[in-house]
């Protein structure tokens, strides 16, 4: 061996000892103990029949969570933003007209990804924290007749829900494929992909699924897949090419990449818990705890940014009161209670707190703990 | 709730009960018990100061494993192929002349990724299982004067090592950036990035690192980063854009994506084990067990595909004897012993076994167990 400086200065990595956090922000959320246990199970190969069984369980569970009968329902081997890039890069081509409903940070990210595919991005903008007017949204689509339309079902930067029914109806009327970012809504409130008319939806694992980050659930409608097969250009991305991923996960089981087995175990376990609870019961739990949280926040004098009709159940954005510095409050929560919430950014920087209660986190006890700690930190 | 067919047929996901496999193929390899334990530690947020400490530990450990002082040394949030796409998409542009040394499946993948970046891909081909002649390789580079040159340090499909010294020297003489696929070599044999002249190297976690798949270690030289900053075109990929990732992991800590925290814990632990053992001792262990394995394979009548001077230490490709069907042998190993090895593919389909002993797997006992079981299965 050589005596390079790198070797002389050999570093030491000590015992891993993470702080115990209560993750009550916009995600990652707390991981369920059962999910940690599943991740301790021994891995198998990425072409092992057992792995494909795991994948089938994930497909079945995700179909319930997304509310779809799409057989093309799987997980991309990356985080939520990888799911976004898979959706955009496969269904938005060079020269596509791509309408994005933009009222937050993640819609901006979708727009940026569209531009990177050399599409013409047409943005229908709303101020961050406000919802879209259905008629105006539909008119915009009819005016521009795009090839693809994207919206954020649950906007993590603002707490705004866009159910997408009017958008998808108009988009289909002009023959556009519809893409929905369901990163913060999956498993926390109904998305109803099929009924809504969403062709392509993606999400993450570290919110409603109670898993660590690492996979991006995705689902595509049969008509979206037809469109993909007919696409004349090749995706610049090999890693996110859904045609190749279909050959791996659907039928042919042709090697594409080495799937992150342990993350698949985790997602499978998160979905097992969802099915055991029952999807209806799970939604009701999130709805009731969202009501409890918003009432609690209002009871300590905080005003909610989002109007009731546009509120998600998993994430809330109370305004930072005048004269209060959000960082000070967040530091107190962290130092005194180990509680992590987040602040706003972009148009809402310094103006809101972002508080999330999703998956395992969504309990009455957690709501009461957070509201009490926040009251104390604001005093 | 609606009464859609999806809900009527609510599936059940039972207890996760993976088979116990001895993973002696080309990867994934066995995960170290300490790594499983680290993955059970509670996650923190992706902007938590503790996460950035973990990231610094990973940087320090990877610098030792890669043999580099590159400060830009980190992990991409995807599998090894995600690292490949990050390397190619950032350093190969539309119109680039891109030379690929192609003697196996993964070099073909690099070529395909280059084509998807609209580069002109120029392949110097060798039959699968053979190494490259240094003088011919250098002459090819001097003839074509490419912008970028890629080679596979350890070709997982063939077991061939390409140390890359002659390639990098010639590439730098014509001003090209050099890219090396170190997926199967990282942590199993010296790569010596800096001495070799490799500008950009990527790897995975599920081989020499003894972790599950899920992250792609990557390192870039200062001159490669300068070239990246001067690049006039934008990467089609937002997820793999190293300029954006630098803002997240290096200094500014600006949110990019939600890093898969648990996978970072795992890689940190794998690297802690590597540092505790000592990089020199680790290489010596792999070298000695590679000798033991090749001798063992020869002792039971198997002929090795790769000549001694081109052999990797982590992966070996004995020929399937005439009249033997590789699938039958592999099935016997799996059924009798739970041992997974792989067969060849592409030019070597049906012609070789692929046997890997990497990271925690590389022990004399495992070598003897495998050779004994293989002897029995071939009998």
What's a quick, concise take on this entry?
The structure is a homodimer of 379-residue chains. With 379 residues, chain A is α/β, with parallel strands linked by helices. In chain A, 42% of the residues lie in helices and 13% in strands.
- The total count of helices of chain A amounts to 14
How helix-rich are the residues of chain A, as a percent range? Answer: 40-55%
Question: Assembly state here?
Answer: homodimer
Which structural category fits the helices and strands of chain A? Answer: alpha/beta
Q: What is Rg of chain A?
A: 21 Å
**Total number of beta strands of chain A:** 14
Main β sheet profile of chain A: 7 strands, mixed
Number of domains of chain A: 2
Which chains have the largest interface? A-B, 96 and 96 residues
- End-to-end separation of chain A in angstroms reads 61 Å
Strand order of the largest sheet of chain A: 2-10-9-8-5-3-4
- Compute the average pLDDT of chain A: 96
**Silhouette of chain A:** globular
Poorly predicted runs of chain A are: 1-6
CATH class (first level) name of the largest domain in chain A: Alpha Beta
- CATH topology-level fold name of the largest domain in chain A: Aspartate Aminotransferase, domain 2
Assess the beta-strand content of chain A as a share of residues.
Answer: 5-15%
**CATH superfamily heading of the largest domain in chain A:** Type I PLP-dependent aspartate aminotransferase-like (Major domain)
Helix-strand sequence of chain A: HEHHEHEHEHEEEHEHEEHHHHEHEEEH
Known CATH architecture of the largest domain in chain A = 3-Layer(aba) Sandwich
């Amino acid at each position: 061996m050589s005596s390079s400086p790198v070797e002389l200065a050999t570093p030491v990595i000590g015992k891993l000892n993470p702080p115990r956090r209560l993750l009550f922000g916009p995600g990652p959320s707390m991981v369920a103990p059962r999910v940690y246990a599943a991740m301790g199970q021994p891995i198998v190969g990425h072409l092992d029949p057992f792995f494909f069984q795991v994948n089938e369980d994930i497909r079945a569970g995700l179909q319930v969570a997304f509310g779809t009968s799409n057989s093309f329902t799987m997980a991309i081997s990356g985080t939520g933003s990888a799911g976004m890039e898979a959706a955009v890069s496969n269904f938005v081509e060079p020269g596509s007209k791509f309408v994005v409903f933009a009222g937050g940070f993640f819609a901006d990210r979708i727009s940026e990804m569209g531009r990177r595919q050399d599409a013409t991005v047409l943005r229908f903008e709303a101020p961050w924290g406000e919802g879209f007017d259905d008629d105006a949204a539909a008119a915009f689509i009819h005016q521009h007749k795009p090839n693809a339309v994207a919206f954020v079902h649950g906007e993590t930067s603002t707490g705004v829900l866009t159910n997408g029914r009017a958008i998808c109806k108009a988009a289909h009327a002009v023959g556009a494929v519809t893409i929905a970012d369901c990163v913060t809504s999956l498993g926390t409130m109904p998305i109803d992909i099929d009924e809504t008319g969403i062709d392509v939806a993606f999400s993450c694992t570290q919110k409603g699924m109670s898993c660590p980050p690492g996979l991006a659930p995705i689902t595509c409608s049969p008509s979206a897949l037809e469109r993909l097969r007919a696409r004349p250009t090749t995706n610049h991305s090999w890693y996110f090419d859904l045609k190749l991923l279909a050959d791996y996960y659907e039928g042919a089981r042709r090697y594409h990449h080495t799937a992150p087995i342990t993350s698949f175990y985790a997602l499978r376990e998160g979905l097992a818990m969802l099915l055991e609870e029952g999807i209806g019961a799970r939604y009701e739990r999130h709805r009731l705890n969202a009501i409890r949280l918003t009432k609690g926040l209002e009871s300590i004098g905080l005003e909610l940014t989002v109007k009731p009709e546009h509120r998600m159940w998993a994430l809330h954005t109370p305004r930072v009161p005048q004269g209060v510095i959000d960082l000070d409050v967040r530091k107190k929560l962290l130092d005194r209670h180990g509680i992590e919430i987040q602040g706003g950014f972009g148009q809402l920087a310094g103006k809101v707190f972002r508080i999330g209660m999703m998956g395992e986190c969504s309990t009455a006890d957690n709501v009461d703990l957070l509201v009490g700690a926040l009251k104390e930190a604001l005093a």
